[in-house]
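Quick one, probably user error.
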């Protein structure tokens, strides 16, 4: 398996394929409870724009993407309307004595591993690659996870993420998780 930063159109298209397969509305109730799910849907144009400023972290096996962990910089907060409430919430969350939106962070926009490759350590390796690539530029990695996505919450906590805030918007109840790299 190869961990790398996405640099080809085919890799971005593979991310979108895996994302579509793991959308909550594409999964059985049992599968979503056991394996987790993704909520946000990206277009190719959005993911290409995100990748142009910060390369997306991917896992490849036999030249095919089998997992990804997206990088979403603050400047892209308005690209995906469903994520705007999360970014707005950052202005009220305190972390280390400061408002979160004033800290040097980026958002891990979504992480997903193809079903056949789950429970093989790829989730952890994707985040290790994030830290290797981006901890030299950022102090924190922040993400949000649906309260009903317990597999994802547990996996993030195992890596060292801490839930620092919970809020509800029109779509769901969300946990803001922070990984402090200091």
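Nope, works fine. Designed sequence:
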């Amino acid at each position: 398996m190869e961990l790398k930063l996405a640099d080809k159109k085919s890799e971005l298209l593979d991310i979108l394929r895996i994302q579509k397969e793991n959308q909550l509305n594409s999964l059985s109730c049992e599968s979503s409870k056991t394996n987790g799910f993704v909520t946000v849907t990206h277009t190719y144009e959005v993911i290409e724009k995100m990748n142009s400023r910060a390369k997306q972290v991917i896992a490849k096996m036999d030249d095919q993407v089998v997992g990804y962990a997206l990088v979403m910089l603050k400047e892209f907060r308005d690209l995906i309307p469903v994520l705007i409430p999360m970014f707005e919430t950052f202005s009220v969350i305190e972390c280390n004595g400061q408002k979160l939106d004033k800290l040097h962070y980026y958002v891990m926009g979504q992480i997903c591993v193809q079903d056949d490759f789950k429970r093989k350590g790829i989730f952890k390796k994707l985040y290790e690659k994030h830290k290797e690539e981006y901890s030299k530029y950022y102090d924190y990695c922040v993400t949000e996870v649906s309260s009903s996505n317990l597999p994802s919450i547990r996996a993030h906590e195992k890596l060292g993420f801490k839930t620092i805030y919970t809020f509800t918007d029109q779509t769901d109840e969300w946990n803001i998780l922070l990984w402090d790299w200091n």
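The chain has one domain: 2-180.
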